[in-house]
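stuck on whats below:

***
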Amino acid sequence: MCTAPAKPLPDVTQHAERSGHDGLENHEMGEDFCWESFLSEQSSCQRVVEYLGREAARATNVDIAPDPDNLAAQFRVRQFKGIQAYWPVFQAMKSFTEARHDHSPDELWLVEHQSTFTQGQAGKPEHLLNQFPDIPVVATDRGGQITWHGPGQLVLYCLLDLNRLGWNVRQLVSNTETTLIHTLRRFDIEAAARPDAPGVYVRPHTFDCEVPLSLWPKIASLGFKIRRGRSYHGLALNLDCTLAYFDQINPCGYAGLPMARLRDFVTPEPSHEAVAHTLIQEFFCNYPGQGDFFPR
């Protein structure tokens, strides 16, 4: 562990200039998620398939009038192509949130990032224990402290109108944690949230069934920004990423916090696509009015 004081965090614009990113130029958003690929065999979901297939996947430039009885009809899921730099996606989230209006559909963005350390608004430089010249440190406007994003990690950005959903910030966090817990349960992984440290934690491999929750390693982090009642940023679930970079920080501000990844708990290891499908399904269980279509 490096005990030398960490250098001040660079301004995010320095990274944008150095990497050549000043917006979304030359940046591929990717295609809307193919819902039919994993819902077509679920007869209970046919109504949702119809909504999402027609409105989300094929009418991505059409504003859909809000319908409180059919919130899924104004929902879109996008999946980015390839591994993405953090900065342009961050800027895209901010731009989307700033430009949206009362009729704008909610969106979920599935992303896998290039290796990046990100600091929350209250982030302290001392939580970065080592500097890496080839890995940017980006100061963001989300809550929380420092974390790492990189290949092998599934990131889900939640661009939601909380006013329309009737959710407060606590409900947003709780529903996101519940989505993750139930997703992991679908792969026979026991997980839980902690009241003192946001995120989702998994029971470690041990014969001791009484391991306290405080000793469970963290498998998923979350952090949000709320602007005029609308959220952006979201969750990061470790799938098959290297965990070594977490050793170079105090993850989420907690010194010595152990981290975990899904591949070490499941045999055979599920594909990224399978986990993404399950995550979206479980998210809809917590989305108002949609639980009936995704029975657990």
